[in-house]
Amino acid sequence: MTANSSSNHDNDSRPGNDRRLLIRYGALTFFLFVPLLISFAFVRNLYPIAASTMMMAGGDLEGGRTYYVLRGETSKGEIIDLPPMDITNALSGRTWSLVAATVANRGFTNSRPHPANLALIASSGGLDKVPPAARLNELLRAWGNIHNSRLSPSSPRYLRAVRLEAFRWEGGSYGNYDRHVQTWRVEL
Amino acid sequence: MESRALRKLVPTDAKALGMIRAAICGFVCCEILLTDFVDLGRLPVTVMRLSGTMKLLPWRLYDALITPNGMLTFKALLLISMLAATAGYLTSATTKAAALLFLFYQGLLRSFGHFNHDEMPLAYILIVLAFTPCADAFSLDSLWRRARTRVGDVVYGYPILLMRSLVGWSYFTSAIIKLRVSGLGYVSPDNLPTLSIMHSLDNLHDTHFKFAFWLPQVRGASTIMVVIVLLWELAFPLAIFSKTARRIILPLGVIFHLATLLLMNLFFPYHLAAYAVFVDWPRVWTRFSGSRLFQRASSPLKKRESLAQTAS
Questions:
Q1: What one-character DSSP code corresponds to residue A131?
Q2: Cys-Cys with B89: which of B11, B13, B84, B274 at CB 3.0–4.6 Å?
Q3: B274: Cα within 13 Å, side-chain hemisphere
Q4: Looking at the complex, does the CB of residue B1 fall below 8 Å from at least one CB of chain A?
Q5: Which residue in B has a C-alpha nearest to residue A97's C-alpha?
Q6: Nearest-CA distance from A111 to chain B in Å?
């Protein structure tokens, strides 16, 4: 797929073209770097403009952390690990924040919720009355159904339920990582 | 538009820019091929939190798109445009379509999860490629359409410099923001062990390495590791200007991203792929084609060709 650029083709070096290209490159640089500079100055992400904010706060040993483990119950009652990365690999690197946000009902508190979420807020009598983790069951059911859709019903890994377990590392020391907090369970 | 300074910094020929286009778009193609879009379309739309400019589009669009059929169609469109951009076919249109669809796709993913910056330098590189003459060589367009090539260092050199600057910006600002937000507390001996353990407790990350739990034993050394990473990020822009710096900074980058994978279960493959803009591909190709290995591998082919010529 190579082509000898200087010998095989007509060279195009007219001053008008040069000027147009320079203007285009100037505009490209401006429209890429000015938003990036603003985003950097305010340490604020506004898609598609990214401030490199990953890990900016550092780790706080005293802070503690709640984390989640996704598991499935097979038809024989066995509990198996169900890493979401194996189910929806498109969400590579993002599943942990999806689960935490769904548990915290953040789909209801952002500036433009889905119309179905707005309807639920209205029918619940306000944002603070929305049931906790209101959309979590839908998410767990979707993951369970995707997992089952790849298996025959006779498979030993075929699931009858999906559960999400919340654990807490209280922090303060490097130990006691797994105090159980809560379990959500959805029948498939 | 000659520029001796630019020629010293970056390759300035059409083939270099064309090869970068093929490498970057080719990488994205492979990623898309390996990603299951249909299963993403089975997730409930109600868990999405639209991010940034994604809010400008109506929810009806997302309701229609986040379905198995919708996502399959979207994958096909993204793949076709990205494949055409890789091959350099109808490049002016396909690079623009590929950049736009990739930006939309990444916005979609961020609306499910969180806004990380892994794919963003590569998205910006796609935008640069969409508005520069990246198909004047090493493309089907240049083979079939006798495309005009331009003279001057700026034409092909400046886009490469711009792409390198975008990658350098990502690392450099990452270090500055860490220091702005956390101050010198960022080099606390508990920072790295705590962050790493936080990301190693669940089963929601892509990998499940447990090396993080070994870090508290080397707590003191972890400060040195964090300082080295900060200095490396601050020094990254040097890779734009100096070949010697590139030889140190880019391999360190590979080690850094592998270390975050093993210690934090976080991996930035798109950042690593963006290192392709620092490679002088025509020179690599010349060296490779001149190597003994290549000569040996291609000698049977050459013999066959000469035999065929003799016979005819």
A1: P
A2: B84
A3: 31
A4: yes
A5: B113
A6: 9
DSSP string, B176-200: HHHHHHHGGGGG-TTHHHHHHHHTT
Is the peptide bond preceding residue A48 cis, with omega within 30 degrees of 0?
Answer: yes
Q: 3-class DSSP state for residue B101?
A: helix
Q: Where in chain B are the domains?
A: 12-151, 182-280
CA distance A61 to B196: 11
What is the Cβ-side half-sphere exposure of residue A32, based on CA atoms within 13 angstroms? 27
Q: pLDDT-derived band of residue B168, with 50, 70 and 90 as boundaries?
A: very high
Is B137 in contact with B150 (CB distance < 8 Å)?
no
Chain A residue with Cα closest to B233: A52
Instruction: Give the position of tokens 């959805």.
Output: A186
Adjacency order of strands within the sheet including A79-81: A79-81, A65-74, A159-169, A179-187
| pLDDT at B85 (0 to 100) | 97
Interface test with A, best of B38, B40, B49 (most A CBs within 10 A): B49
Q: Bridge partners of A166?
A: A68, A182
Confidence of residue A6 (pLDDT cuts 50, 70, 90): very low
Q: Which helix (H) or strand (E) holds B275?
A: none
Phi, psi of B59 (to 5 degrees): -60, -30
Structure tokens at B96: 């623009």
ipTM for the predicted complex comes to: 0.90
Looking at the partner chain, which of A5, A83, A95 has a beta carbon nearest the beta carbon of B137? A5
CB pairs under 8 A between A and B: 282
Q: Taking CA atoms, what residue in A is nearest to B41?
A: A88
Q: Which residues contact A47 (CB under 8 A, 6 or more apart)?
A: B51, B52, B53, B54, B106, B107, B110, B115
SS3 assignment, position A162? strand
